[in-house]
Design a protein that fits this description.
Layout lengths: L2 H15 L1 H9 L6 H15 L8 H14 L3 H13 L4 H15 L1 H21 L3
Helix pairs in contact: 1-2, 1-3, 4-5, 4-6, 5-7, 6-7
């Protein structure tokens, strides 16, 4: 495994998903799932998200929202909805991505994605005192 990629990935992962969430994931890892944490951090976050000459984080976030919605991965979608907001994706842009999902992946996928987004937005609004 590549420690440099891990450190780069860890920094990006914390910036996108939130420091507390990522530190909790790493701290709660055991011998069984720590290799998955390393793989995800190094290759997903370090090697791909860390490509400075590639796509901006905002674009990567929008792509993730579409793919996770299409794959019906609500847990990951909720994490990446919050991350997309941190990366500058507006709620209006998220709505447009999810409408696109509904057309190309099916209405049920769009409905579920919108439900996840509303839950995440409500949680964020509660935390912000709105």
């Amino acid at each position: 495994m590549n420690d440099d990629l891990f450190e780069i990935g860890l920094e990006i992962r914390k910036a996108v998903l939130g420091k507390e969430f990522v530190e909790k994931s790493i701290a709660s890892a055991d011998d069984f799932n720590m290799p998955m944490q390393r793989l995800t951090t190094e290759y997903c976050w370090g090697a791909v998200w860390g490509r400075e000459d590639g796509l901006p984080r905002k674009t990567r976030s929008m792509l993730n929202l579409a793919m996770l919605s299409a794959l019906n991965r609500p847990h990951e979608l909720k994490m990446h909805l919050a991350g997309a907001l941190r990366n500058g994706v507006t709620r209006e842009e998220i709505r447009e991505v999810l409408l696109q999902v509904a057309i190309y992946c099916g209405i049920p996928a769009g409905v579920d994605a919108f439900r996840c987004a509303r839950e995440v937005f409500a949680e964020i609004d509660r935390a912000d005192g709105k």
